[in-house]
Prior knowledge:
Number of strands: 28
CATH architecture of the domain at 4-168: 3-Layer(aba) Sandwich
Radius of gyration: 32 Å
Amino acid sequence: MNKLKVLELFGGIGACSKALERLGIDYEIADYVEIDKYAVKSFNAMHGTNFEPQDICEWNKDIEVDLIMHGSPCQDFSLAGKQAGGDKGSGTRSSLMYETIRIVEKLKPKYVIWENVKNVISKKHKHNYDNYCNKMSELGYTSYGKVLNAKDYGIPQNRNRCFMVSILGKYNYTFPKKQDLKLRLKDMLEPMPALQTDKLDKTINLQTDNGRVIQCGFCDLYMCEQDLIVIDQIYTWDKAICSEIEIAGKDYLPRWFTDYVYELFEAKCRLKGGDPILYALAKARINSVYGLTIQSCVRQEVIEVTEDGEYQINEYGDTAFLKSGMYRPDFSKKEKDEYKKYLNRKNTVLPYQWGVYCTAYAFKHLFMLGRCVNRYYKEDGSLAFPPHWYYSDTDSAYSDDWNYAELLKYNQRCKEMLEANGYGAVYVNNKEFWLGIAEHKEPDDTYTEFCVLGSKRYAGRSLKDGEIHITVAGVPKEKGALTLKNDLKNFHEDHIFRGEETGKLAHFYLFNDIHIDEYGNEVADSIDLKPCDYHLDAVNKWEFIEEDEVYMTMALEEVTDLYEI
């Protein structure tokens, strides 16, 4: 088979040629037309060629080609530009598309591929798109146009572009289908997807459920070995590449630190049920140790220029020439100040890797706990329906169908790991407390009704007192529950917790002229506290998928004896 002879117009760095190469198509470059000398230099370096810059308006060679590929200038069509358009004879860069038609008419290649921005088919510019199509038809070509997104074809980039494929003669052409999703749950009935979207960098064809990945074509993320253990249990994928490894410069959780954590845990246990203030302080101390390790460091995106020269400042390639010691001009004063504070306070938090590892380790245990919910299987070995896993938080999980034998095994493994590291139970008033085990108290942690609307948004009727208890971030628990009027059906996404009923207050700034108060003091502007409403929305509502939706909705409505572990 003869090589495909290719003419690249507006060739840039040769992305079209590289696409042919990656597709395994045997081709040769008949000629390459690009006026930018730096792009030409890059093209030659990547393709092993020796082309010189060429002006398309002057190009008039008589050569044999099978395929013309051109991404005519888009600046005057793009929303990022001035919308000057591409009318023939207008002198704009985008009007150079008509030079392509001139060359096609002269060479009559078998195929022509045109790529441009999506806005070329907008109402303002579509007449140029139609003119191109009509002219190609007059020349004997059958053309097919479609807007394609790079993310649907293996590129980790959300980038819509308009493509037109023109074939000489009468042919039927179909654009390629979107890529199949490559990362997916092993079992769509898992208690909970593992991958959190806020851990992902670049993705393709991402499908999520309550902020967690159901499936995707490609994802890029940082993870530790504990994360990998969970991901490997929950997902299957076609290919995985480790592109970067980072090693912490400090030991993970040295003995002095774990001893200190255990001492704080022991102090909290001994104060439980005693003085509420002292207990609250003890609880705050142990929580703060964890918090100090997971504070978000200021991302080093505020870049101080160390050498004179140009620096790209936006996605369109605009540049600014900065002197040494200057900051990028697109950053605010607040961002610069935060960056300076970060540079001056490197040692005010514990090593960040400790918090990362602890979080991943706790996450792994949460999924181990999920395996303690009963599962019912069909004869073919598949799950008959989803496990009754209704909600989980950082320190709690809710189900109405726990396998208590598995729970005992789980707790025993936790105890064995503690003892292996020299830590045992804390005994207070003949009661035994273990760090990190799953506990269930009957009837305190048993619910006869339960409803979940998302993260930190759930309510249930307690078996202990028959009352409704709520957890809604930002809403006082006791008074907030009273607004439901003892009916769990009132806990829905449009419910409003009135500030007058819940006692929730917000700060309001009051502007007043200077005046003399009753004590003879001069007073002016002030901060006042006023009742604040809270609208229960559904931003984080769990969206059940496909065939499981009906079952899970019914389960939430009809559940009895729901236990918290």
